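Q: Okay, next protein. This is ATPase from Aurantimonas marianensis. I've checked the sequence twice, so it should be correct. Can you predict the 3D structure?
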Amino acid sequence: MTAGTNRSELPKRFYQTVTLAEAAGGFSILLDGRPVKTPGRRPLAVPLREAAETLAAEWEAQRERIDPARMPMTRLVNTVIEAIADDPVPVRDDIGRYVETDLLFYRAGSPERLAQRQRERWDPILDWAKDSFGGRFVLAEGVMHVAQPPASLEGFRSRLAKINDPFRIAAMHQATTLTGSALLALAVAEGRLSAEEAWSLGHLDEDWNIEQWGADEDAAARRGQRWEEMRVAAVFLGRP
């Protein structure tokens, strides 16, 4: 349940059965035999059966009240259908801008063990980028912005431009924001990494801090929710 939301304010579950049905371009969800619609009254349909099965599981898992905070696939699909499908280019362009400040470029100066871990785990992705699309990127210590070579940025964007499906673009954007890295999102989309591997790389610094100071219960719960968002995004990227 989202912060500040009283459970009594959530809509009551109004259906008994959840089933799948073939629809134009893929699959839809039926509640008591009636197709689900987005908040904007568009048909809620997805091109992949696995995504439809995840949607159905979310709707089936709702009990007395329907809690959107516990329905990450439904939220993602609603966003795609209502805000991205008609024109996915702006979202794709946003990923192209994000790579200018990619997480993997900014390294710790100390402690040395953290810096070494970043080198060992992040450098192979930069090597893959260099070999895959000629992306040689500049690294920096700390958080001060460092300009990247225009040719490397263009190489990434040219690769990104090959992705046209709005569901895949939305999933890449979600993976980018969750990991802090457009390169990691592209690596998942191209099969270089699994979602779990990209998640681990994107949270390397956070995991280091947890090792040093321990985990906070509330932070762990929020992280669990974000992982579910990563997991459903990976369904559309082909690497759950």
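A: Here is a summary of the prediction. The chain has a mean pLDDT of 94. The two ends are 24 Å apart (CA to CA).
Q: Noted. On to the next one.
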